[in-house]
Amino acid sequence: QKDLFGEIVPAASGPARHVIRVVFNQALMGTFDYGVPDELWPVSAGGRIRAPFGRGNKPTEGFCVEVLEDVQKPAERGYRLKFITDVIDDKSLFTKRMLELGIWISDYYFAPPGQTLAAMIPAAVKKGAGVAKIAVIYLLCLPNQVESILSEELKRAKKQQVVFRHLVDSGAFSADKGIEKSELKKATGCSDSVIKSLRTQGIIGMEAASVLKSLPVIPDNYALKTSKKIQLNRHQKSALEYLENELTEARFGVSLLHGVTDSGKTEVYIRAIDKAVQLGKQAIILLPEIALTSQTIQRFSERFEKIAVLHSGLTASQRNSEWQRIVNDEADVIIGARSAVFAPAQRLGLIVVDEEHEASYKQDMVPRYHGRDVAIKRCQLENAHCLLGSATPSLESIYNARYRKHYKLLELPERVMELPMPAMECVDMSSGEDAFSDEILSRRLRDAIRVALHNGEQVILLLNRRGYSAFVFCPDCKEAIRCKNCDVTLTYHKRGGERAGSGILSSYKAGGYAICHHCGSRTLVPVACPLCGKKLVLKGAGSQKLEEELKNKFSGAKVARIDSDSMESADYYQMLDAFSRGDIDILAGTQMLAKGLHFPNVTLVGVLNSDAALAIPDFRSGERTFQLLSQVAGRTGRGEKPGKVIIQTVKPKQTVIQLAMQGDYEGFVNREFEIRRQLALPPFTRMAIARLSDKSFQLLETEAERLFELLGDISFRLGLKITISKPVPSIIPRLHSVYRMDIRLVGGSGEDMRKLLRNAIYEKTYKQKVKIIYDIDPISM
Length: 781
Ligand code: ADP
Ligand code: ZN
Known about the structure:
Layout: E1 19-24, E2 32-35, E3 48-53, E4 58-68, H1 74-77, E5 82-83, E6 86-87, H2 96-108, H3 113-120, H4 123-127, E7 131-139, H5 146-151, H6 158-169, E8 179-180, H7 181-188, H8 192-200, E9 204-212, H9 234-249, E10 253-259, H10 265-278, E11 282-286, H11 294-301, E12 307-310, H12 316-327, E13 333-336, E14 348-354, H13 371-382, E15 385-390, H14 395-402, E16 408-412, E17 423-428, H15 432-436, H16 443-454, E18 458-462, E19 469-474, E20 479-480, E21 491-494, E22 512-515, E23 522-524, E24 537-541, H17 543-553, E25 559-562, H18 569-581, E26 586-589, E27 602-607, H19 621-633, E28 644-649, H20 655-661, H21 665-678, E29 686-694, H22 697-718, E30 722-724, E31 728-735, E32 738-747, H23 750-761, E33 771-776
Parallel strand pairs: 2-5, 10-15, 10-16, 11-13, 11-14, 12-13, 14-15, 17-28, 18-26, 18-27, 25-26, 27-28
Antiparallel strand pairs: 1-2, 1-4, 3-4, 3-6, 7-8, 7-9, 19-20, 19-24, 21-22, 22-23, 29-32, 29-33, 30-32, 31-32
Helix pairs in contact: 2-3, 2-13, 6-7, 6-8, 9-10, 19-20, 22-23
Zinc ion (ZN) binds at residues 483, 485-486, 516, 518-519, 521.
């Protein structure tokens, strides 16, 4: 029924019989109640619907989050209920607990609930990627009529007999046992007209069905191997014992497995997962995206039969079909990157978060969740165990394990097989020959590369900067070219080294341009400084230049570069596979290379600008650098031959670099804890950032001041112990032509922080005039 304005109104007889609570995939914190017309009932919580919404009542997609029991009369409700117009999913996309998890994320991270739920389901699943419509053919007769049909109706139709017999032999006596039309044609060699004539005689029927077609993700040759049974060492044994007991008790708990690379952590994961599977449970293993190469997947495939894989190297239809396999309970073990924490497993017993300290577990879009923390929450909701693993646990996790005793600490202090830790060596780039040369590679590192290549070994080189050179710089004005949209310097890129499809500067002779790594804008590089007319110079090397140098200096070697310019996600899986096969000698790239990869033939790792990370004005820069250098060390010496790490730095005396060289995690943690405690920083406190942005700097400043005052008032009113710092420009003060300011909040408890922000969001007297995002537990400033 529609009213005068085309709005759908409930039947005149009174209250709607069914009312649901809906959230829309928009930046809105609220929920909305709608009636469900009888013909669309039932609707399940967690499924998508369409309902008139907003100005003009546009049909808008939303999720039903709750079916309301209590149906009020319109008079009691005080407003007229609108009705939904469509049900998109007949089945819920979420299990009950996942819906609960989604609501928790929305609440904890201040993310709009509709956007949060939408982010939990891969786009490929929502679109139904890879689902094809097929025609299914089946018999309309009963088995006891077969003979008479053959001897009468089909007596003289030889071709029709063949098709008919094939259907009879396949037992296709009903639609659900039917045969796909194209298969039937292939099997019998019949034409469409034969099928048509059988249909017109009423002997066979045809029905449409949808099937999900896709290539298998796990290749057939990854067969299950009853691998030579590895004898766990005593540390592994005691860790496993603890985990097995927790899994058997089926209770919620978190443990932190701390062990250097090659201490046998993955072996412990595998055994714990094995136990979970034996108990009839499922396990999810989260890995940083880059580590999801075929070698990792192969290692798990050799130990478990029913594996599903979710990562960005899959095609859309593969992603959908892997997801559907989990929905249909066909997988015991699920391996994936951050978002696999949302895999629709229904018998979850264990989540493993490998390399739990990795910054890539934090999502930098709405909802800004941390994969590790969501994994822990999910385990709590499902009475499952959460196992975090790392060689260099985050300060947060080690604090939770050691000081607060929230996590059980499990330690693997030795490398298995008594592999020695690789030799770490520092090259001081601030003095001697290297300081005065233009070379990116120190003499020491060049010699070491030569030796490794000579011995047929492989080399990994890390340079944490994309592009060709860091700045285009005027030596006289001391100014670098900056982006017109963002407050950052531009990076010089050579043509041909960037993503395909950007050859817009083909007429430019100098062959390069300056690109903004934040908004992607590109400009021609002027030859002379626009201010003084002096010739501009390129400063600071990027991965492109490194690649060029390597190709010049080591002409016999096969060199490849990995960074986000050189490839799309699907390619880097291939590149890493090529490297593990030995088809590449030197792999150069940005820090994505440092993560959890296992290449036994790598004997040398070089870090070219180890100081860059330390220079970032973020209180975690020391932690990042320590982790990076330790991770890098773990990339070498994993085979029979000993490994070597060469670190180029201009500050060889830096404590963090020294501690990393000695592999002294304890020393690092103790020092860092002391600093954080004194400065009242996480993990001793909780942090949140309110980031305001607007095109007008003036408005932004006024609004930041206004929000700052509001937060102060609320904090005072509620008696919260939260330090609210005055608004300051963000680390990148302008991005995409939009100015940004941060208000940093530091407090003793997460609960106080949420109270403050919740009150600010719903404050009636405050009207928000600029965009504000909240980043809870931010991991970068
Ligand atoms: P991590 O995950 O800590 O880097 P892994 O579990 O990958 O360590 O172990 C490194 C290598 O040692 C793997 O090849 C693994 O099969 C092997 N390994 C693990 N535990 C043992 C053990 N107790 N005895 C012998 N080999 C082991
Ligand atoms: Zn820019």
